[in-house]
Amino acid sequence: MAEDIQIPGDELQEAQRTLGFVHDFIDIGHHTFDFDAAFGRELSRGAAQHFENRWEDGRHQLQKQVKGVSDAIGSILDAFDRTDRDAVSNLSDGKGGR
Fold first, then answer.
1. What is the tally of helices (H) and strands (E) in the chain?
2. How far is CA 86 from CA 3, 14, 42, 73, 83, in A?
3. Alpha-carbon separation of residue 24 from 27, 66, 79, 94 (angstroms)
4. Which of 30, 41, 63, 92 has its CA 20 to 30 A from that of 55?
5. How far apart are CA 36 and CA 48, in angstroms?
């Protein structure tokens, strides 16, 4: 009944990098963001600024959640890395049996 366990390590690492990017740039603020260039004249700066002001609380909550998911991915990757190293060590020490 043993089946192969496949852990998408590369995909998890990419997800962790992407979450890091999201975390770092989710709080760029209105002083460093060009609303007009990003949204064009159709969306007035006032509407974008209104959204920015209301978004403040949600942004901080989202940052915490993004960091939590990223940390969890890191823990998963570390656990599988330790498991792999321990398995190799046990096999190298002759404990693996043939």
1. 3, 0
2. 20, 25, 59, 20, 5
3. 7, 10, 25, 46
4. 41
5. 9
pLDDT of residue 47: 75
Q: Which residues of the chain have pLDDT under 70?
A: 1-2, 28-33, 35, 41-45, 94-98
* Helix, strand or coil, per DSSP, at residue 29: coil
CB 76 within 8 A of CB 12: yes
How far is 84 from 76, CA to CA, in rounded Å? 12
Query: One-letter amino acid identity for 86?
Result: D
Q: Tell me what pLDDT residue 1 has.
A: 46
